[in-house]
Amino acid sequence: MRAQWAALAMAVSCAAAAAPERVIFATPGAGTAIGLLSEVIKKNHLDEHNGIALDIKYFDPAATEQAVVLRRADVGIFPVISAARVNLMGQRIRLFAPALINHNSVMLQKGVKADKLADLKGKRIGTLDRISMTYTTLATLAKMQGFDLDQDFKLTLSPPPVLMGLFLRGELDALVIYEPLVTRLVGEGHQEMMRLDDAWRQETGQPMVALAIAAYDDWLAAHPDAARRVFRTMTDAIAVIGKMPRQVIEQQREFLQVKTEAQTARLAERLPHLYPTRWDRPLIENMELLLKKNVELSLLEKLPEDDIFVILK
To answer: Does residue 234 sit in helix, strand or coil?
Structure first.
């Protein structure tokens, strides 16, 4: 009998040891290209294949970053500029995996004529909260063109559903929003005045890599194996989207809020170009350039003393 109990205890112990580690993952939800990564992960069981169990929690974009900062999630999506800013405030957030190239555009209200940001000075512009990639990168580009985003434009800062409602009711002259909502608005007859990534490329010759996967440094130190598995899971999801974007869109039409064949075709062409396919020193230097430009423009006081970018070993 004693031998039977010992065998049973060993079996239970082995089963527990084999169970994948649960990681709470914060991400924006439906209607976002970054949230699509989580849907692809779960659809294809990529976390399970990599020996991890992602417990995905959906938020609006700004609340996603707050969830990481407030430790309501172990890991999550985080803007590069905001990561530097919270580190200067003592929050030791680290970026350790790729997420997204800037996918925001300036959309014009029907009847509004504008070719550049200068044409929108004094106009009503809707965008996301200040911690978001949308706001921080828009502020960067505005400052590069000689404008103060808060002083030179009439800003409305709100979550995406509120902004979309205001814009569609004609209460905003312009809306700075991301894919796939950009594709939806183009399909409804709104003009895409400027893609933020295009404007950055014209100035620097590089894509604007502005979102990454983040965690606190103490979590990474305590969970190195889980962190590596999260990294592989994210890069696997990016690879799936890159290889078969149209199939992914067809599978996730409801999540992406795609309604027409024209929207599907347009998004299938754009999606593969939105996600970085590597995480290495050249990509980190790309993100560092964005931070250095923010310091140069006095949008950041200085660079963090510690390196906020981590290449997992």
So the answer is: helix
Phi, psi values for residue 75, rounded to 5°: -140, 150
Q: Cα(25)–Cα(2) distance, rounded to whole angstroms? A: 43
Other C-beta atoms lying within 10 Å of the C-beta of residue 158:
17
Domain boundaries along the sequence of the chain = 19-101+209-296, 104-204
In CATH, the number for domain 104-204 is 3.40.190.10
Nearest Cα residue to 270 out of 150, 123, 30, 101: 101
Look at residues 135, 113, 276, 97 and name the one whose alpha carbon lies nearest to residue 191.
113
What is the C-alpha to C-alpha distance for residues 75 and 65, in angstroms, rounded to an integer?
10
Contact 76, 28 (CB under 8 A): no
- How many other β-carbons are positioned within 10 Å of the β-carbon of residue 6? 10
In the CATH scheme, what is the code of domain 19-101+209-296? 3.40.190.10
Token digits for 97? 């995996």
Average pLDDT across each block of 10 residues of the chain; the chain has 313 residues. List them in order.
49 54 96 94 97 96 93 97 96 97 97 96 96 95 96 96 96 97 94 97 95 98 98 97 96 93 93 94 97 97 96 92
The whole-model pTM stands at 0.89
